[in-house]
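Its record is set out here:
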Amino acid sequence: MDTEQIVERILREIRAVRSTGEGMPAAAVPETAAAPSFAAESAVTQPFCGKGVFDIAPDSKPCSDSVRSDKLRACDESRSLLLRHMQDTTSARIGIGKCGARLRTATMLQFRADHAAAKDAVLLDVPDTLLSQLGLFSVQTLCSDHEEYLERPDLGAQFSPETRKRISEECSHNMDVQIYAAGGLSSTAITANLANILPALTDGLRARNLTVGTPFFVRFARVSSMDEISELLLPKVICVLIGERPGLATAESMSAYLAYHATKGMPNSKRTVVSNIHRGGVPAVEAGAYIAELIEKMIQKQASGVDFAK
């Protein structure tokens, strides 16, 4: 028997089994030759659209093409509404789609714009016009430029003797609260939020009969720069408003770091932070009012950080 005859014989046997059910296990032999129900077909071809959109009972009759199209259309509309709701409630890049193997043009352009904004936030300076508008004098840490600031975090917490002298002369000592601002890793955050948060914070503190030292601005400062300033001016609570590391969701996020009787070498666990201050997070004015209330409680409890949470 040649190869063609063997193949033909196998095909005949397969067709015979399919038509008669002979040779199949009893449980697998269909009782009738009726066509499969629409419910069985829909389990394969019907797209998932979420529980409760529409259900088809196992014993339901086959639907016409128009009825099936209406149900599939309702499913698509429901999924579109759910996706739009998710996109409206998060800054994450979801449901952006693609074109072939690459991102859509609009998505790619938006990504590049957000990335450029993040780089600008790190590398640009807070404008002097804003500092003049708010009446803030400006000093600088031992970092000479942005490059050194990024490479030497330790220098961002230290001041020259001349700078220490100026801070001491310009600011009051032994106040309840000392506030200063720093560009940190996002000058954009300070530019966007400082003019709104600073008045709300100082007014809130004075309304609680707390004395506030002269606010000022520090270039190329790290969070731990608050320790040296605290030892120099001796406030009960020191507060630094600083730009946070920018991301692709926003480059305007600012944080407030607070410490009670801060000293050099203190662990970060002794600091309290209020973060996510920007127009898409905690609004600056609201954050200022909250921070004032928080500082009052710190002074009452004489603690900050993990000690304040006990």
The two ends are 90 Å apart (CA to CA). The beta strands are 98-99, 102-103, 137-140, 177-182, 216-219, 237-243, 254-260, 272-277. Confidence is low (pLDDT under 50) at residues 22-60. Residues 65-88 form the longest helix (24 residues).
